[in-house]
Give the backbone structure.
Amino acid sequence: MNQKMFDENPKEATSNVGDAMYRDVNGDKVITSDDRTEIGNAEPDFYYGINNTFSYKNFDLGILIQGSYGGEILNIGKRYYENLEGNQNQLRTVLNRWKSEEDPGDGWMPRVRSTPTGQTSQVSSRWVEDGSYLRVNNITFGYSFSNRILSRVNIENLRIYLSAQNPILITKYSGFNPEVNTSENTVHAGSDHGVYPTSKSYSFGLNITF
């Protein structure tokens, strides 16, 4: 943004060159609360899941996959991690911020401010992201020893296995976890205020029957 663009476009009363620009929804040439509009839908187009077990000779492989397609997430955490007001740590993306007319950055990240002016910190489509994801919840690979071997040591069944819980997540969402629901409140569905990532775990085990 430069001074000419700033002068020619609708703006909020306290904004300045380098602040985020907003669409003048109602066409009155100024940016106010009257320009608020719907910016996303938290409900996915559909959910899906796959749960199957494959066997070959003494080997078995179990896999559980689930996910959703469509639906938006309001990554409200970025309101704080990219607010450029100097009151907390920021994401690396702020390195591409607007610095001057000669160095406007990536055209997305606004200028540094000492106070929340220009409505740059207001909830907007800047923080709405695609919430689609595919998660592999569990993969378990096992091997069952044959009865011919086990009969020699008085064991009826012996199976060893290696299991991975939540090993893979595929998503374009930039937050920690696309499965968000602030305070488990349906009113805030799809709103991410800093939800924890889903933990991963790996285990090795034995199933023995004497």
